[in-house]
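Friendly challenge for the regulars: who can give me the structure tokens for this chain first? No prize, just bragging rights.
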Amino acid sequence: MPPVPSPMISRSDLTTSARARRPRSWTLPKANPAISQEIAERHQVHPAVARILAARGWSAEGALGDYLSPLLRQLQSPFELTHMELAVARALRAVKAGEKICIYGDYDVDGVSSTALVVGALRFLGVDPMVVIPHRFNDGYGMNNARVEEIARAGCTLIITVDTGVTAVEQVRLATERGIDVIVTDHHLAGEGLPDAVALVNPNRPDVAYPHAPLCGVGVAFKFAHALLKESGRSDADCKAFLMEQLDLVALGTVADVVPLTGENRVFVRHGIEAITRSRRPGIRALLQVAGFADRPITPHTIGFGLGPRLNAAGRTNDATLALRLLLTNDPREAELIARQLDELNRERQEIERSILESSLEEVVGPHADAMPHLLVVGGQGWHLGVVGIVASRLTEMFEVPAIVLGIEENLAKGSARSVRGFDIHGALVACSSHLVTWGGHAGAAGLKLHASELHPFRLAINEHAQSVLADLDRTIRLTIDAEVQPSDITWAFYRDLQRLQPFGEGNPQPQLMLRHVRTSAPPRIVGKNHLKLRLRAGQQDFDAIGFGKAHLKELFESADVDIIFRAVENNFQGMSRLELELVDGRPAEAG
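First reply, four minutes later:
Bragging rights claimed.
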């Protein structure tokens, strides 16, 4: 039976209550005025933007020019990746000999976009490969023996993995025994040993690490495709045109996998967003249409909250090959049909997530209304394993404590864990492993399986462990301010220069700015479920402001002058554009 939502629980109230109790600390780094001025003059940026750059550690010299103007020529040679020569040589030998090749991918956005890219590259060279994307529930994560046997029966003599394979020691050994060579392209961390593949292309190899930005799976796949085409004998112009068209896929996987948008990833996403905007790929256009972004500017937010969840929905609740078909089809009608299917699957995923979250909140708020545990462990019969990780993330965000969410089937509980800064959730599972059947992951996220009868003792044990670790942990919410600005700074010229810092995301956050002694020029209003709508006066200027999830600050703005942290955003409504302040936090104005 699906969990029954409770109308008595207000998610917004719980979030406000949990976060409002946490102490806050504002940090305003001091930028060197001389460096700020030199940046402003040499790179022709607004003085306030120059202060942001200086506060983030940039100087007028060095790599700032590349940062402000990320160009494709800044990409490193793909042959800087260890084993790339071996991988390309083996793949081209297979292409020229007409061997049957299998691409083995993964079911998330990074894995599906990686698969589509390498399949496209091989088709460009005249080869139509077999494709295997594991089913989340039938196959589990990564390569498995049954699928290797299936590939062997199909007559393949070469497997090329994308976004997977670095931990597949046993599966690569089995493939070799079946007469199949394996090229591994991956970005994940290795286990205790490396697979004995003919080539292992991974920027995170423990023996020879790639010295540049931490690429995701599709970044590695693009490097492989680049090297493959470079050595293929096809014309440089044809290869370049093909690779440029693949940057939409690279942007999809890079943003969705939440790798830092610095270095090569910054170049990939900046140009990938342009590729999405002009994409001739029917699947991308159809997905933008159903997501409501067809006529709006494309940003990492578009990918992270519009396209990514719909592509992910296939692998979470159904079969990820549906998402792959969308990215590979050349038929606009087929693309439209698949995009609608993915949109519906995403709606189903959202409803399942909402239902499990509400049931989780019932379990949390009932016994723990007055005393929140150090670590949340919740579980329910039939909870969908494709979304328990998302729900764990939501609970962690809401209550600022680690969370474990488990789906129970018969006598087994399986699920996902998410953590907070300073707490190693994988280490916690290791400490309580006597209660577990299997577990794995890293400090921030993990998966686990245990017998349902062990759920209560496991909850007690891991909370005891968490208490010993978290009791002395500083739980202050720390907000870093990039620059203090004056009301006169907030102009379209400033905003245009601020956009030169795009794309914003992991490793390159949208700048947070500070205004002092702001007051309301109209009564604050609560809009939507939990949002604060403001008309603010700073100096002699008025600004519209919106605080998403900031209803708890309404009283603050009613009583006194306020210092605020905000982000500058463009609000487009009915064809009109205006600058708006997106509220991050507020506090009573300091004297002076």
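The CA atoms of residues 5 and 355 lie 5 Å apart. The first helix runs from residue 11 to 20. Your move, everyone else.
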